[in-house]
TrEMBL record, chains A, B:
Its cofactor is FAD. This is 3-methylmercaptopropionyl-CoA dehydrogenase. Residues 462-584 form the Acetyl-CoA dehydrogenase-like C-terminal domain. It is an enzyme of class 1 (oxidoreductase). Its EC number is 1.3.99.41.
C-alpha cells in the first residue's frame, strides 16, 4: 500500500506537455528552473511518501470523532499537519508579497496531486485553505489580508468554505443563513451549513470560515448573497486566537469514504463575522475560489487514480495465476503478463496521464492568464483556463472513479477485502464527481457558458491547437506519430462537429447532451495533450538529450490511448445530439419501474 | 429506501422479449401460463418487498459476526430465511421429480432478481444453494440425491461452493486441498478454502459444502480435481443432522459491501466427505453449476441496479433545486426535470432493461436447451446459452456498478452519506464483476471458447437473429421503429466485423481485445433485445390488446438506448483490434509510474 510520488511523470506533464518553463518569460517567476522544480517536487514527494501515505489506510479505519463540539482527526494527522506547516507548503503557489513561495499555480497543482494521492482525506484540509487564500487575496480588505493571510499562508490557521445548506446544494442561491449588521461594522451570522470539509479539527490553532449568507432585505437568489469571514477564535489585539466565536460543529457525516476528513455540520449562532468583498457580491467572490477549487478537485481525481494504479501495478507483478500466452518459463505467471490485465493497466495509466495533462495545462494557462505581460495573451489563456476548468474537474474525477474501480478489478477477490486497501481508493474517489459542483453542473457550465464565451473563441482556439498537433504528428519522421494523427484527426473532427451542433442547439437540447459532450471533449483534449507529449518525446529521441527509454514509453502509452479512447470518440457524437425531446416527450412514464 | 419488485417490467422481459411462453410447447411445463407467472411473481414480490427489502440497510450496518466457529447473521435474517423456506422458493426452478416446483429456469431468474434487488447479502445464500442443487441433480449418486436433495430443495439445509484457495483464484487448477480415501468409501478432506459465501451461518439447520479437492496421485492442474460433498453435520440414520463434521469457519472477511453475507474462511481438518461424480472430473461438475451461477450473478447485477435506480428515481422526483428549462410553475423544480438528471435516469433505466433482457433470454434458451423435443433445437439453444452466459455475467454486472454509481450521482452530496443508502448499493454491486470468474475471465471465455464453438455457429446465428430484427424494424409502419433500425444496423455490422476479426486473430490478440469485444457484444445484444421488445410493444399498440401507455414507454426507452449506446457501438471496433503488440512490445517500462 505504499505510494511513491511519480516525480518524473509529473515533471513531464508540467514541462514537456504544459510547457510550464515558458512562465519564466512573464517575469513573475524569476527563479523558475528545472532544478528548482526538481528540488521542490522532490521535497514534496518526501512529505507525501514518508509522512502522509502511511497514515492513509489507518486514517480510513479510525475516522474522525466529534465530542462536545471538538473533532479528533485520526492518529498522526495533527503531527503530519505540523510537518506540512513546517515545510511552508500552504503558501507554495502564492505571491511572496503575501508571504507565499511565489511559485506557479501549476506547481501548486503538482503538490496537490501528491497530497491527494498520498492521503486524500488529509489533503482536503490544505485544499480548502488554498481556496480561502485566493478569495482573501482577491477580495479581502487590507486589514483582513494583514491579519489573516500570513497565518493561513503558513498553515498555522486553516480555512473552510461554507456554501451548502440542506435546501441549497447545486442551487446555492437558495441558501438562508443570515447576517445582521452589528454596530461595530462586524456582522452577526446565524444559520446551519452542511458538508463543511475540515469544518472543525485538531490540526490547526484556529479555523477561518468563509461563509455565504444573506444580509437583511437582500435580493432573492444568487444576487443577494454575501461572503463573510468567521474565525473560530476571534483574533485578539496581537492577532492571536482569542475569544471563542459562536460557531460550532454539531454533527459529523458518516460517509462512504474520506473517513479521515471531518465533514461537519456547522451551526452559526450570532457568530461574529466580517464582510469579504462587497455586500451581495458573494457569488463573485466564490467564483474566484471556484476555478481553483474545481481544478484542485480534478487534480484529486488524478491523485487517487495514481494511488490506486500504483497498488494495482504492484499487485499484478506479484500475483501469479495460470499460464500467460506470451510468457516463457514455468507457470503460474504474473498476472501482468495476461493480456487482459496488461491492457487494463495500460488503459489506467494512459487515462491518468491524460487527466494529469489536462489539469496541468489548465493550471499553466491560469498562470499565464494572471502573469503574461501581453493583454491579449492573458485573455487567450483566461479563455483556455475557463474552458478547461469544467473538463478538468469532471473528466479527471470520472477517471478517478474508473481507475480506482479497475484497480479493484485487477486485485480480483482481494480487491473487495478492505484490508487490501484498493477498496478505500474506490470509496474515496467517489466523492470527487460530486463536490465543488457535480459533474453534471460542470457539463452544464461547459455547454451553457464556456462554449459561448467570446463568441465561441475558446473552443475554436482549442480546435486550432489540436489541428496544429495533428499536422505535426502527420509530418513526423516517426511512423508511430503518424499513426497517432490517424486517431486524433477524426476525434478532433468529432469535437468540432459536436461543438458546432452545440452552438446552434436550443438550451434544453444542449443540456441534454452536456455530459456526453464533456466526455468527448475530455477524451479528445486528453489525447491531444498526450500527443503533445509524444512530440516532445520524439524530440528527445531525435536529439538524444533526455531519458530515451522514458520517451519511448510515452509514445507507446499515447498509442494505447489513441487506439482505445480516441478511436471511440467519434462514436460519441450521436448521443450528444440526443435532444431533450427523446427524454421529455414520453413523459415520466418512461422512467417508471412498473 | 423501499423497493417494489418491477413485476410488469420483469414479465415484459420474460414474455414479450424472451418469449418464455413458448416453453409450454416443450411439454416440460404443462402448467405454464400468464396467470401462473403473474401469481408466482406476485408472491415472490411480496417476500422481496415486505420481508427482505427492509432488512437490507440494517443488515449492512450490522454485518455478520464470528465467535467460536459460529456465525451470527444480521437481525431478522434467520426469520426471513424461514419465510423463504416456507414459500418453497428454493425449489422453484427444479423438477418436481426432485421435489421442486417444476418451473423454468427463467422464472428462477426472475425470483433471483427480486431476491438480489431486495437484499443482495441475503440473496447470496439461496443463490449458492441453487448451484449445489444443479450439481447434485447432474452428478450426485441416487443415494446422495435422495438424502440431500429434498432438504436443500426446501431450503431447510443450505449449500455452498468451495473452490478458492489463497494461491488458487482465477486459476482453480492450482488448488491444494486434499482428499484421502477412508475405508468405508467416504473421504477425509483437509485444507483451507477462502471467500466461501454463506460458508457458516445461523439460518439453516445444516450446511452442505461442495468442495473441490485433490485425491492422492491425481494429475496436476484442473485434470486432477474432484468434487466432494461435505456436510456440516453428518446425517444420522434418519437423515437428520447428527455428528458435527470437522469443517469450521475460522475467519470472516471484512468486505467493502454485502456485509450481511458471511464470507468465510473454511478449515477442513480430515472432514468426512463423499465423492460427487467421478474422481478427477470435479471441474466438469463445477461447470454444471457455473453456467447457472454465472447467469445468476448477472441477474444480481440487474437486481442491484434496479434497486439503486428506484431509489434515485424517487429522490429525483422529490428533490427540488433551481429552475428547469422546460418546466412551468414556480422554482425550485424537481431535479428529474433537469435535462442532465433526466438523461441520467433514462440511461440507467434503459441499461437495466437491456441487462434484464439479456439474462432472461439466456435463461429461456437454457430451458429450451434442456427441454425442447427437437435435438437440433436443443443444440441451437445450448449454443445460444453458452455464448450469452459470459455476456450476461460480465455486461450485466458492469451495468450494476455503473448504474449504482449513477444512483449516487443523482443524489449529489447525499449520495456519499451512508445513511442515504445509495452508497450501500454501490459498495454491494462492486463484488459482482469479480466473483464467479472475473469479468476478464468471462471475456476470455467468450473470445477463446464461445466464439469458436461449432465452427463459430453461435455468433453467426445471433447475428442472423439481429438482422431479422433490423428488417422487422425497418419495415414497420411506425417510424420510431424505422429509426431504431438505423442504430441497430451499424451496431450489428460492428459486431460482425469484430467477430470476423476475432475468428482470425492470434490468441494473444484475441485476449487483448476480449473485454472490449464483450462490451460491444453486450451493447448490441442488449439493444437487439430491447428492439424485440419495441416490436412487441408495436404489436400491442396495433392490436390494442395490452397496456398501451406501457407499450409506448418501451419504444421511447429503446430509442434512448439506441441513440446513446447502440450509436456508439461501432466506435468500439478499433479498440477490439488493438492487438497484443501495442501492450507487450513496449515492455513493462510503459506501465511504470516514474
Amino acid at each position: 500500500m505504499s505510494y511513491r510520488a511519480p516525480v518524473q511523470d509529473i515533471r513531464f506533464a508540467l514541462e514537456e506537455i504544459a510547457a510550464m518553463d515558458g512562465l519564466k518569460a512573464t517575469g513573475a517567476f524569476p527563479d523558475l528552473s528545472g532544478d528548482l522544480t526538481a528540488q521542490v517536487l522532490g521535497e514534496a514527494a518526501k512529505l507525501a511518501n514518508d509522512v502522509l501515505a502511511p497514515l492513509n489506510w489507518p486514517g480510513d479505519r479510525q475516522g474522525c470523532t466529534l465530542k462536545d463540539g471538538k473533532v479528533t482527526t485520526p492518529d498522526g494527522f495533527p503531527q503530519a499537519y505540523q510537518k506540512f506547516v513546517e515545510g511552508g507548503w500552504q503558501g507554495l503557489q502564492f505571491s511572496t508579497d503575501h508571504g507565499g513561495m511565489g511559485l506557479p499555480v501549476a506547481m501548486g497543482c503538482a503538490l496537490m496531486e501528491m497530497l491527494q494521492a498520498s492521503n486524500m482525506a488529509f489533503g482536503l484540509g490544505p485544499m480548502l485553505s488554498f481556496g480561502a487564500i485566493e478569495a482573501l487575496i482577491a477580495h479581502g480588505t487590507t486589514e483582513q489580508q494583514e491579519l489573516y493571510l500570513p497565518r493561513i499562508m503558513t498553515g498555522e490557521w486553516s480555512a473552510t468554505m461554507n456554501l451548502t445548506e440542506p435546501q441549497a446544494g447545486s442551487d446555492v442561491g437558495a441558501l438562508r443563513t443570515k447576517a445582521q449588521p452589528n454596530s461595530d461594522g462586524s456582522w452577526a451570522i446565524s444559520g446551519q451549513k452542511i458538508y463543511i470539509t475540515w469544518g472543525e479539527h485538531d490540526c490547526a490553532e484556529n479555523i477561518v470560515h468563509l461563509v455565504l449568507a444573506r444580509t437583511p432585505d437582500s435580493p432573492a437568489g444568487t444576487k443577494g448573497i454575501s461572503l463573510f469571514l468567521v474565525p473560530k477564535f476571534l483574533p485578539d489585539d496581537s492577532g492571536n486566537p482569542g475569544e471563542r466565536n459562536a460557531v460550532t460543529a454539531i454533527g459529523l457525516e458518516h460517509k462512504m469514504g474520506i473517513h479521515g476528513s471531518p465533514t461537519c455540520t456547522m451551526e452559526y449562532d450570532n457568530a461574529t463575522g466580517w464582510l469579504v468583498g462587497e455586500e451581495n457580491k458573494g457569488m463573485a467572490c466564490m467564483f474566484t475560489m471556484m476555478n481553483s477549487a474545481r481544478l484542485n478537485v480534478g487534480v484529486q481525481g488524478v491523485g487517487i487514480a495514481e494511488r490506486a494504479y500504483q497498488q494495482a501495478l504492484a499487485f499484478a507483478k506479484d500475483r501469479r495465476q495460470g499460464r500467460a500466452p506470451m510468457t516463457q518459463g514455468e507457470a503460474p505467471h504474473a498476472i501482468i503478463d495476461h493480456p487482459d490485465v496488461r491492457r487494463t493497466l495500460a488503459v489506467m495509466k494512459a487515462k491518468i496521464e491524460a487527466a494529469r495533462a489536462i489539469c496541468f495545462h489548465t493550471a499553466v494557462e491560469a498562470d499565464y492568464a494572471e502573469h503574461h505581460d501581453d493583454e491579449e495573451e492573458r485573455a487567450w489563456s483566461k479563455r483556455r483556463e475557463d474552458l478547461l476548468i469544467p473538463i478538468a474537474k469532471a473528466w479527471a474525477t470520472d477517471v478517478g472513479v474508473e481507475v480506482t474501480s479497475l484497480g479493484i478489478q485487477v486485485h480480483g477477490g482481494m480487491g473487495f477485502i478492505e484490508e487490501t486497501g484498493a477498496a478505500q481508493h474506490y470509496r474515496d474517489a467517489r466523492i470527487a464527481p460530486i463536490y465543488e459542483g457535480t459533474n453534471g453542473i460542470q457539463a452544464m457550465d461547459l455547454v451553457g457558458r464556456k462554449l459561448a464565451m467570446a463568441g465561441g473563441a475558446a473552443i475554436r482556439e482549442l480546435i486550432e491547437d489540436i489541428r496544429q498537433t495533428i499536422e505535426d504528428l502527420a509530418t513526423s519522421s516517426n511512423p508511430d506519430l503518424n499513426g497517432l494523427a490517424e486517431d486524433l484527426g477524426p476525434a478532433c473532427e468529432a469535437l468540432e462537429a459536436a461543438s458546432d451542433w452545440m452552438s446552434k442547439a436550443a438550451g434544453e437540447d444542449k443540456l441534454s447532451g452536456a455530459t456526453a459532450y464533456l466526455k468527448l471533449a475530455g477524451d479528445v483534449v486528453g489525447g491531444w495533450l498526450l500527443c503533445l507529449g509524444a512530440l516532445s518525446a520524439q524530440r528527445i529521441l531525435k536529439h538524444g538529450d533526455g531519458d530515451e527509454a522514458y520517451a519511448r514509453s510515452r509514445i507507446s502509452l499515447t498509442r494505447v490511448y489513441a487506439e482505445t479512447v480516441l478511436s471511440a470518440a467519434p462514436g460519441l457524437v450521436p448521443q450528444i445530439r440526443l435532444g431533450a425531446g427523446a427524454l421529455f416527450d414520453p413523459g415520466e412514464a418512461m422512467l417508471e419501474s412498473a
